[in-house]
Every structure is written in C-alpha cells, then in structure tokens.
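yo, LEKR1 protein is done. seq:
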Amino acid sequence: LISSATKSLRMETEILEKKLQDAQMKLAEKDGDKEKEVQSLKRLISDLEFQLTMEKSNNESFLDKLRKEIKHKSDELEKLTQERTQLIHSLSQVQEENSLLQDTVRRECEERFELTAALGRAREQVLELRRLSGTLP
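structure:
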C-alpha cells in the first residue's frame, strides 16, 4: 500500500515537475520572442523618429500620422511588458503550488509510514493475545 501510494505520489510529482518545466520553457521562449520584438519595436521607433525629423517641415499631417503610430507601438510595448509581468507572476504561483504539493506529499508519506508501523504493532499485539488466549484453559 505504501509502495503503491509512494509510486502514485512520485508519478504525480513527476507530472507536476514536467508541467513546471514546460511552463518555464514556454516562458523562456516567450521572453526571448518578446525581447526580440521589443528590440525590433525600438529600432522601428528610432527609424520613425528620424524620418519624422526629416519630413517635419514638409507635411504637418504626415507628422501627426507618425506620432499616432509611435503611440500605438509604445502602447503595444507596454502591453507586452504587462504580459511578461503576468507570466512571471504565474510562474511564481506555479512554483509555489509545486512546493506546497511536494510538502504535502512528503507529509502524507510520513503519515502513511507511521500508520503502517502502528498497524504492524497492533497486528503483533493481536497475534500475541490470540496466542496467549489459546494457551489459557
């Protein structure tokens, strides 16, 4: 029973660890992609600002259009930054939950071990009582 329970809990722990690793890998991939996108957006913003400086005297409406595009990209960058923060928070929660589950598994295994030991002692006492009662007239 203990072996089966331990095996089951180990399997559950392995599954949770795999899920945690998958979540960490996805977060790392998303962080890398987002960092590339941030750099790309920064380069794009720099290019747009240079272009804006060059064309400022020619067309005021074109200037307004570029400012709107820069605002949009900044908002997108802010949104990506917020998503990254949320992903980091989610990862932290998953890690905390995993730690809690591992502690629970450890405590349950300890309890089962103690209960099994107590059951063994009780069986021995019952057998001793039966043996003694069998020898009495």
